[in-house]
Amino acid sequence: MDKFERLERTLIHKGAIIDYYQDTVKVPNGNIVKWDFIGHKGAAAVVAVNDEGKLLMVRQYRNALDRETLEIPAGGLESVDEPTDAAAARELEEETGYKAGKLELLMTLRTTVAFCNEKIDVYVATDLKPSRQHLDEDEFINVEAWDIESLAQMIYDCKIQDGKTVASLMAYKNKYC
Fold it and tell me: Is 144 one of the catalytic residues?
């Protein structure tokens, strides 16, 4: 045998954001192993650039870290079939109060390939037009405008650690600056 074969996938817990499974897999040497798997619908994120060239960032509390973080706007897909550009436009407006005149795909991220299928498509949003925030009842977000050099320095100083934000800002800096 020279391949992996999933024999079974058992749902352990269905959550609001993720589903937790235990997979039974036959590995190339014939052994049967149990692996954890996290199912995720996917997400979209946005590097939003205003007319002055500053990037709109969101500061919000993250329960997993028990602190506030500075991140690019992002959010989960409403369904696995939702186009990621539509989700990116929705999340940009919901979290920052701006609509994008133009969205361009920057990159696709796979956040934790060892145990999760989460995929995030990241877009660059330009030609921003004011709208209004549409926050969920459990969201408390402050919008801040930053220059890319300051954000890059915050990454180097370990002040920004969110993976999607680090990868997206560095890709943006490399491609557009």
Answer: no
